[in-house]
Amino acid sequence: MTVDKETSTEILRLYHAEKWKIGTIARQLGLHHGTVRRVLRDAGEPRQQKRRRSKLDPFIPFVKQTLEDYPKLPASRLYEMVCGRGYRGSQSHFRRVIAPMRPKPAAEAYLRLKTLPGEQAQVDWAHFGKVRIGRAERPLMGFAMVLSYSRRIFLRFYLGAGMSNFLRGHVDAFEAWQGVPREIWCDNLKSVVIERRGSAVHFNPRYLDFAAFYRVLARPVAIARGNEKGRVERAIRYARDSFFAARQWRDIDDLNAQAEAWCEGIAADRPWTEDRSITVREAFERERSSLMALPGDRFPVDERVEVVIGKTPYARFDLNDYSVPHTYARHTLVVIATLDEVRILDGADVIATHPRSFDKGACIEIPEHIAELARKKRHARRLRGQDRLVKAAPDSERLLDEAAKRGGHLGSIVAALLRLLDEYGAAELKAGIDEALERGVPHPNAVRLSLTRRREQQNKPPPIPVDLPDDPKVRDIAVRDHDLTEYDGLAGEAEEEEDSEE
């Protein structure tokens, strides 16, 4: 608990002038006794009473020596070490006693660094919350780069802090300034440094390619030394307060348009730190001529990944599926993605181009891809069924040829004959097809009529569908067949009527 200056003065007066005890002061002023002791201790007063003996007393020399050797050793680890040497007290008491013993680091002073125009830029990421896009929740990351001399700020927002977005930020900043600084100071993030041991740095190969392309020197700052890039750290704080706070925006494109206007306006018109009589804009104009010229080409910053197409014709990229022609199933392809477009390549050939989605689990399709697959599958199903039918009843091939000549739909004919094959068997189907062909009616209805007549002549029960339940009352039910001779009579009457009309 903190106390105001008047209360602190009253505590000191009661303690020194009135000789009140700490407990009395605490009760009368409504304070905790620990608060009163802290006020007296901060004023340089010794403790009123001698500390009682503690179980920790024998271990105090060990604790002090350990903290002197390892000032940042956690209290939890130190407590385990003391318990291993025989201490049986509570951890809360241990923490309270050793807290004043921990050596405090000496305050460090820093030199204000001065840089030449065009010499150095500092870069960093900043997290600005999350953005909901459909079913996906994407991190909103702000890329900030600051020219160390003029303090010119470049701010751009991306949905993620991956390598491609990191490089996009650099390239966009260089193009916005129409020049390149000689050095880039940054943190030891994986986009720049893969591994570091002291001053030995293993750089990310792609970032080295980028640095060689623009002829810049990459300078990762020392680990845990953010002060070495304090200008970009202050620029990010300034952007949070001056730009992002309470800002309304529709989408990330609108946000970036507003950020660009802020960088060109308010941020550029603020006073320059080195000489407050001029603005950052004017300081940047002095620095512009010292920046290195942009190369003729733009460094390729598109995302590039290999994907394996499974049984379904889709390439999975960044949480979403993009369709490809079905002929590329079980192939390895390459996806190249910008912020707006996804291209899928087989070698150097572009086989599909899609608008990019930042949703999650979305299926982005080209209708022709799916339609072609559907046609192929329907044709394949018909061919497989036709092959099975011909093997069971070879004459079915002749029936299908005759049906095709008359404009029949082969798919439905094959499906109907296969159902008859399952119900009556191969031998009966063969006989039914032969009879239908003899009558000159190449149609499944003629085959079905023939099979029904043959079943009646043989006094056989009607076929039982295989999907009937196992209930014997259902399976053993007697089904009376209709006498089909009436239809023959009707057919005869129709012929007599035709003759009479003639």
Description:
With 502 residues, this protein is of the alpha+beta class. The protein folds into 4 domains: 5-101, no CATH class; 120-288, Nucleotidyltransferase, domain 5 (2-Layer Sandwich); 303-365, no CATH class; 372-497, no CATH class. 43% of the residues lie in helices and 17% in strands. The protein has 18 helices and 14 strands. It has a 5-stranded mixed β-sheet with strand order 3-2-1-4-7, with helices on both faces. The protein has a 4-stranded antiparallel β-sheet with strand order 8-11-12-13, with no helix packed on it. The longest helix has 26 residues, at 367-392. The radius of gyration is 43 Å and the shape is elongated. Residues 498-502 have low confidence and may be disordered.
